[in-house]
Amino acid sequence: MKWGDHLTTLAGLRKLDEDSELPEVLEYTRPDEPIQVGPDAEDTVVKYAFWENRLYMVTLWAAGPQAYEVIREAMVNSYGPGIQSPDKKQTYYWIDDSADRMIEYLEDKELGLLWMRSREIDRQYKLTQMRIPINAGRSAPAAIGR
Length: 146
Fold this sequence. Notes:
This protein has helices at residues 65-79, 119-130, 140-144, and strands at 14-15, 25-29, 44-51, 54-63, 83-84, 91-95, 99-106, 111-118. By secondary structure, it is an alpha+beta fold. It has one domain (7-144). Residues 140-146 have low confidence and may be disordered.
């Protein structure tokens, strides 16, 4: 999958009934996708989020510290050492022109989280959520006089 891929071009997706907590963003899973991170495949969940039917975000949840280490190692191998959070020692960030990426270990839930999103689609999404009028940035008298 690539950022911006259209929902209709991706096979095997099933829409989740739960709300993504982002207006106009729908989440899907691939029930037949064999993903195992750590010792137990049943404890690995991948969600694909789409805005305007385009791939916007991917989140992966995996149980246990071993799964988190597998995720961290894969990210370091793919994107380099990352930026470690000064506040959370088990949180790392990778940011480039195309995507924002983060991994985090949630000790209280014993879950590893990998979160990625398209920077361009995120920019477009946020602009639509701001509901900026067409004449934004012009002074009121200039906009009225035109």
